[in-house]
């Protein structure tokens, strides 16, 4: 059997280039996921800062205030890299590094601590939906070429708010009028509706990883189940691709992962 360090590099890069994302099944072992889940559970139960609540974002479905029922539902446990060695260990694993080196065609890669870098949660009962966007709405870098690595710590299905993506959309260059004021795709436009109709859901299991490009359009629904969905999410960039000074992307130093 092939180890997770041996894989068809050409096929991996070709799929990513064509679709803007690629799923690797069982990249993290059950044991690793359980270890991560144990620590995530502790941070979630104690609500250890820094966290982002659903109310902070006000995405569709979010409670209106911290005092409302579900108001203290966490959306993200922030600063995962600095929080705990189990997260750092996963973020710098060779199985991730070799794949990123393949996708960036470079060995000089850094992890951004400024956004994502989190445990993304979809709470049972009080979660929100994320509208269609490219992650470049969050990023201010010299080049719009970042890659997010999303590890599922449990089943991700449509009913618990899995990712949806528009394959190949990372190559699109849309006019500014296609976006709303918050840089989400406007759903009132027929052109955007046609684009969204090409979307596919990314249903994955515990230990599976999605690599996706920062230009890829993606979205996610609410969690309609009774179990909180948890994913560990880091974003990487080439060393020469710097965060623009005095932006949210440059608030924390990136970490070299070679
Ligand atoms: O789980 C979700 O709602 C999607 C999150 C997402 O796309 C993001 O934070 O960029």
Would you give an account of this structure?
This protein is an alpha+beta fold and 258 residues long. It has one domain: Jelly Rolls. The protein is built from seven helices and 13 strands. It has helices at 9-19, 30-46, 54-57, 80-83, 85-91, 94-104, 190-196; strands at 21-24, 51-53, 74-77, 109-111, 118-122, 130-133, 147-152, 163-165, 200-202, 209-213, 218-220, 229-238, 255-256. The radius of gyration is 18 Å and the shape is globular. The mean pLDDT is 94. The structure holds 2-oxoglutaric acid. 2-oxoglutaric acid is lined by residues 120, 122, 130, 135, 161, 218, 220.
Write the layout of secondary structure elements.
Elements: H1 9-19, E1 21-24, H2 30-46, E2 51-53, H3 54-57, E3 74-77, H4 80-83, H5 85-91, H6 94-104, E4 109-111, E5 118-122, E6 130-133, E7 147-152, E8 163-165, H7 190-196, E9 200-202, E10 209-213, E11 218-220, E12 229-238, E13 255-256
Antiparallel strand pairs: 1-10, 2-3, 3-5, 4-12, 4-13, 5-12, 6-11, 7-10, 7-12, 8-9, 8-11
Ions, cofactors and other bound molecules: 2-oxoglutaric acid
Q: What would you give as the CATH superfamily?
A: q2cbj1_9rhob like domain
Query: Do you know the CATH architecture?
Result: Sandwich
Shape call:
globular
Total count of domains: 1
SS elements, strand count: 13
Binned, the helix content reads: 10-25%
The largest pleated sheet is described as: 9 strands, antiparallel
Low-pLDDT sequence parts: none
Give the terminus-to-terminus CA distance. Answer: 27 Å
Could you tell me the CATH topology label. Jelly Rolls
In terms of DSSP E residues, the strand content is 15-25%
Radius of gyration of CA atoms, rounded to a whole number: 18 Å
CATH class group: Mainly Beta
Helix/strand/pairing class, anyone? alpha+beta
Number of helices: 7
**H/E element string?**
HEHEHEHHHEEEEEHEEEEE
pLDDT averaged over residues? 94
């Amino acid at each position: 059997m092939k180890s997770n360090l041996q894989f068809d590099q050409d096929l991996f890069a070709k799929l990513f280039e064509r679709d803007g994302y690629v799923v690797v099944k069982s990249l993290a072992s059950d044991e690793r996921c359980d270890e991560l889940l144990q620590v995530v559970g502790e941070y979630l139960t104690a609500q250890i800062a820094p966290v982002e609540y659903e109310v902070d974002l006000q995405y569709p479905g979010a409670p209106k205030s911290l005092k409302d029922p579900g108001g203290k539902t966490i959306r993200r446990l922030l600063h995962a890299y600095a929080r705990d060695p189990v997260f750092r260990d996963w973020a710098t694993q060779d199985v991730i590094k070799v794949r990123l080196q393949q996708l960036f065609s470079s060995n000089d890669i850094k992890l951004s601590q400024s956004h994502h870098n989190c445990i993304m949660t979809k709470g049972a009962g009080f979660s929100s939906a994320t509208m269609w966007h490219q992650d470049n709405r969050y990023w201010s870098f010299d080049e719009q070429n970042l890659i997010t690595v999303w590890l599922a710590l449990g089943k991700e299905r449509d009913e618990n708010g899995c990712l949806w993506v528009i394959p190949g959309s990372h190559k699109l260059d849309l006019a500014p009028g296609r976006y709303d004021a918050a840089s989400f795709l406007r759903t009132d436009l027929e052109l955007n509706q046609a684009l969204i109709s090409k979307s596919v859901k990314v249903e994955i299991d515990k230990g599976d990883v999605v690599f996706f490009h920062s230009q890829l359009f993606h979205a996610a629904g609410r969690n309609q189940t009774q179990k909180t969905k948890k994913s560990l999410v880091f974003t990487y960039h080439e060393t020469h691709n710097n965060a623009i000074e005095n932006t949210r992307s440059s608030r924390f130093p990136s970490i070299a992962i070679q």
